[in-house]
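Example A, followed by Example B.
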Amino acid sequence: MTTALMLHRADGAPLSTVFRQAGLSPTDPFAREREIAWEGPNAMSAGRASFVGQRDVARYPHTETLTVVEGELTLTAPGAEPHVIGAGAGAVIASGTAVRIEAAAGVRFVFCTEASDTPATPALIPLHADADFKPSGGPAPEVLLGPAPQCRSDNVFTNEPTQYRAGTWDSTSYHRIVRPHPVNEFMYVLDGSVRFASPDDPDGSALSVSTGDAIFVPQGTAIGWESTARVAKFYVVQNAQA
């Protein structure tokens, strides 16, 4: 059965997720440090990595959304000011982007990548909690178990051929039924907490995430949503076509 996978716990609690150490390709700049938790359709993958040192990448081999959970990572495109990414911030590195990667001390991050043959427009886009939010659609009325929430998003990157989208989202509290998740989704929680119910919770227990946690939910996973206050998150979503 497909299940949601914890990629990081901010409180350092142990994870039941199984990680496999492997690079995404022979030219993966983090091939030696990457730990993959999930791989699926459309060359999507999610996991975690650690890094220290400096690497110059002439052409990034895949599209990657990453969020730093410990330390500081500096990303610099040619002719541009460096992006210094600390814990709780992130970036999208589009396929084909030239970038210098630097970490003076050990840095740890979680990631969601798309290593497909479909190129994206080169770009290096930072992700911050103080996003340029705009009103966005919320859950369909038929799946809600209470009042409709007010949702906002700031989608900063889209690769239309592969339907890979990344950005920041927030919402007022809401409660939703357990149903198959419609997309592959990576989430890093910036604020608030969520209880994810599933059909395997006969005793009422459920997977919960809070600020600083990261999770990946594969498309088709039967999962609910219950939040009692504002929730904000970085996200990557993709509708995995058969």
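Example B, a separate protein, is given below in the same form.
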Amino acid sequence: MSQLPNCPKCGSEYTYEDGNLYICPECANEWSQDASSESSDTLVVKDANGTILQDGDDVTVIKDLKVKGSSSGIKVGTKIKGIRLVDGNDGHNIDCKVTGVGAIKLKQEFVKKS
């Protein structure tokens, strides 16, 4: 009998096979048997043009953005230096500081790599 891998999401040892999928009964995570656990852990963030972004990249805003709680927003062409990628569950995957606004999280579809 072969040893089944632990769940890559929660680490549970109670995984089982269903066709060509592994399933975790504790967190309901499903993953392919041929997928490596490292590929699911890496965060891939692409800009509006499809270019892959990395930590420390410089980006440019491609659309006027309203900022909640601020009378001014972020204008088209604003350059942002040294972004940090985060796993935002609501689509805000870029953590950065914008001059005049402060620390903010942005969605990847509103920026392009500089």
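On Example B: The two ends are 53 Å apart (CA to CA).
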